[in-house]
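Render DUF1023 domain-containing protein in 3D.
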Amino acid sequence: MGAIVLPALVESVPRLASTAARAATFANNLRAVTVQVKDVQEWAQGQGVPEGWQGDAREAADHGTTRFARRLDVSEAALERAVVAADRFEDRLVRLGTRRSALVDRQGTLNDDITALRAEIDGNEAVEASVAAWETRAADLRGRAADLVGDIAAWSADADEADVDFVRALQQVDEVAEGQEAAQDPGRPDVADLTRGFDRRVGDPVALAAWWRTLSRAQRQALLTEHPHRVGNADGIPVRDRDEANRAALYSDIDRWTRQEADGELGDADRAALANAKVIRAELDDRLEQVDPATGEHVVHVVVYKPGEFGGDGGVAISFGDPDRADHVSVNVPGLTSEVGSLPGNLGRTEALHDAALGQTDGTVATVFWLDYDAPSGNPLTSLEGITDFGSVIGPGAADAGGERFSQFIDGLRASDVGTTAHLTAIGHSYGSTTVGHALQDGLPVDDAILLGSPGVPEHTAAALTDADVWVGAKDHDPVSLIGAEDGPGTLGTDPAQESFGATRFETGDGSPRIQDALDNHTSYFTGTSLDNLGAIVVDQDDHVVHDEGRERWSEEGHYPTLPEWLAEGVVRGVGDPIVEGVREWGEDVVDSLVRGFGPGRFVG
């Protein structure tokens, strides 16, 4: 038998010298610089001539201001081209990364097949039938190896070309004359005309999304850098573009406010906004190297950026994964005491949910944390003062307004979605569940709704609330979930955990009965079995959800514990206080204060 010629194992596919995530970071920094130049140009154009100047001094001042603004426009035009080049380079790297992943898979399979055939030949006596089959397989392997080596070489050439083209594009705008040429280019996007088109459609996510798709890359980038705050927060704009605009706004804001702070010119409102912006930047920096394996891009996207909203609490929405391209999308609305300053903990829970969902599907997942409403302050779980604050400041008003805003956000995600329509889940925790409830009541277009630790929703049944599938997570020892119960104060609506509501309850664990563990009970829905169930619902794996049969009936009366009963029992179990009636009366006084704070007609349904 002649020797059977097998191909050599194919060497590993080279890594990209540049990555899409790093290119995106570079592009974001360029955008931030462009925004700052535009801000200075706008300031220069608005300065005019100082009041009282006449004659030659007036003419010189007017000439100097105009000349300065024109010089800035040259820099602006050069930066615009550089931003477009960086954006195009990022896209090329994404495609190259996808091709590389496919090549790596082919290389691994081919080398495994070569190794398997070699072992089979070495470990068996040669017979004619085997030799013929081995020769056929070897020929196939040689062909596959040749094709793969050729494809790797072509891929490497394309990767080198992408680097060269990007450097060349930057070199074409690195001199003043080239910037002047860019500024005078008749094909330069007309930002004023684009702004008018944007203004006519903003507020209508479907119309805005459709119009945006007609724009060239240069036109989009011109709007991103001209109006980063507006574009970044416009529902219907693709999430990737919103992320680019919001990061440019974020970095530019921090730079401007930091300089004002150093000069002693920063007001209280801007100081609060700066603190919020720094919190957001820190969370982004912590995840700078996290890459979405499905796209090769940054896994984190900033979808809403409003650092100075809601009396300094700030507004923000951040997504793990790209909702526009994901198979399964969930949006999590937090509740009491949520503000940008609490972003680290909330993002940690959102990231945990993202990982739990990814672990239960072969599809793609995007998990959004949304805080673009005025979530109430005051913590009802830590003290009597906190509970009475809760009674005086929390009503359905913020939930109603937040629900309307949430509906607009979801409409925007639906409008910018590409490909197959995503399976979409709305998640509301604590007061956020009431906010989601108001959005559902108004026809929120989602497939599933999850209500966690809910103090109440504005309908008596799930069927009256929404056409979506409604899921409820309620720990037996979460006092917030007792507020809307039959014997509770019902300040925000109906308890969706009650059997009569008609939702599907899933297992969350009971939680500890001790009063000092009440806060932990209320904030631990994104852990353990509860988290696994959330992940299964998000990726439409309903068969994997562990159901909950209902609340533990531990009260002496043999019914769901009322809030006063829970408070009394919690103190007894927590500290062993034998004066049960005194504690019970204290709890009843607290509940009475809640009811007095809202009065009759407190919910719809």
